[in-house]
Design brief:
The chain has about 450 residues and is mostly helical. Helices cover about 75% and strands about 0% of the residues. The protein has 18 helices and no strands. α10 packs across α17 (about 400-420) and α15 (about 365-380) crosses α17.
Length: about 450
């Protein structure tokens, strides 16, 4: 190769890198905007159909609760009809399908699928389904990354742009750019390389910065609420909580794996099945609206900030493990990340409440235990322990709290690895004949 040819080749390579970085930054910004619109839609649906927001309804029923079965039943009918007529294959899609697109479909997620998931999930959550908003955000991020790769001269970097959209979705949702970068490498690419790291990092930072401008991310937990107070014996408590988190996570994942396909396989028209599920959810919500829709996010924060009694924490934990499989099996659209946050927060706060009442030992704030429980439940479901720990660190900005979460996450994985094997999404893919570990 002549010297002139080498120079021209170098210029082309630099041009490609510059275009890739530009595309990644554009993806990050648009993903944050898409998430902002998604959240606006959720709130709009709730404001239209719930005269009193779910998080303002007290537990135990009352005059303001009687309409919940009708509202969720009607919302289910809307979701069922929209899913039937706008979604590819007339079926809901989830995180498993994002991973499947990465493995089998050349990293292609259509805009119809990505934003169909976003619309259906926003409607589902707004009406009150017991599902999360983070999975749909990842789906939209993957769709935007795939779209830009299709309409740019960067088709050979499709997988990098695909992962960039997902990194931006995590970063924008949690204001956690480092966790977004790591999640894309740990869960999607499953390897690290400098060629992919740079554009993914740019996209993640752009997503976080845009999300802050639009105020769409999770608000951080103050350091004073999570600080570790007593080192030596509390690490034993964190380890026990991690083991309990693993047990609860195995039950939750097995419940999803067992109940969702069976509910979807019932001989009921898929257009009306969500309506029937919505009625059941509404009946549950008449007593405990905390587990439904946006009420679940408020209840999660209430657990973190020590505002719920022990019996209610345990009740909500059990109900969430029922209502999320019911919602997804009935045909509502959404993710499991939000419900996992909820379950972990309830478990951790309840565990700390028991110690506080019966052990007669000074311990750190209950909020720290709630965060350890959240990490212990989320991490095995995603199969992303490092990303989980880093996400919570970026949310709390508390190093000592992160060491407690590290202990809980490690012990939770001991249990889930023994009794479930892999992450929830790996097991779902395995059920479709796809071995993620061999790819």
């Amino acid at each position: 190769m002549s010297e002139v040819t080498k120079i021209e080749h170098s210029k082309l390579k630099l041009t490609h890198i510059a275009l890739l970085i530009l595309a990644a930054s554009v993806i990050g910004g648009f993903v944050a905007i898409a998430i902002a619109l998604f959240l606006q839609t959720v709130h709009l649906v709730q404001d239209i159909f719930h005269v009193t927001p779910l998080h303002q309804l007290p537990e135990g029923g009352g005059a303001r609760h009687w309409s919940l079965p009708l509202i969720l039943g009607g919302g289910g009918l809307v979701v069922g009809l929209l899913c039937y007529y706008i979604m590819p294959g007339r079926a809901n899609k989830g995180m498993m399908h994002v991973l499947e697109a990465d493995l089998l479909n050349d990293n292609k997620v259509s805009m119809r699928e990505g934003f169909g998931v976003g619309l259906l999930s926003a409607i589902s959550i707004g009406f009150g389904a017991s599902v999360g908003r983070y999975g749909p955000s990842v789906h939209m991020g993957a769709a935007l990354g795939s779209l830009l790769a299709s309409f740019s001269p960067l088709k050979d970097s499709r997988r990098t742009l695909f992962a960039s959209g997902i990194a931006a979705a995590i970063s924008a949702s949690f204001n956690a750019p480092l966790a977004g970068i790591l999640f894309a490498h740990e869960v999607i690419l499953r390897k690290f390389s400098i060629k992919t790291f740079i554009p993914i990092a740019v996209s993640s930072v752009a997503g976080s910065a845009t999300a802050q401008l639009l105020d769409v991310h999770i608000k951080g937990v103050p350091v004073a609420m999570t600080g570790l107070s007593h080192y030596w014996y509390e690490y034993l408590f964190f380890a026990i909580l991690g083991l309990l988190s693993g047990v609860v996570t195995v039950i939750f994942m097995r419940s999803l794996m067992w109940s969702v396909p069976r509910l979807q396989g019932l001989p009921i028209d898929s257009r009306i099945r969500p309506a029937l599920g919505g009625v059941v959810l509404g009946v549950i919500g008449m007593q405990f609206p905390h587990v439904l829709g946006l009420g679940a996010e408020v209840a999660t924060h209430a657990a973190i900030f020590q505002q719920l009694p022990l019996t209610l924490l345990l009740t909500l934990l059990a109900l969430k493990m029922v209502t999320t499989p019911l919602s997804l099996g009935a045909g509502f659209s959404g993710g499991v990340f939000g419900p996992a946050l909820f379950i972990g927060a309830m478990l951790g706060a309840a565990f700390a409440g028991v110690i506080d009442q019966y052990a007669n030992l000074p311990i750190s704030p209950l909020s720290l235990y709630a965060l350890v429980g959240m990490g212990g439940v989320i991490s095995p479901i995603l199969g992303a322990p490092i990303s989980t720990i880093l996400t919570i660190f970026e949310i709390t900005t508390d190093y000592e709290a992160t060491t407690a979460i590290l202990m809980g996450v490690a012990c939770a994985h001991v249990v889930t690895h023994r009794f479930f094997g892999h992450s929830l999404f790996e097991r779902q893919l395995a059920g479709r004949g796809i071995d993620l570990l061999k790819r």
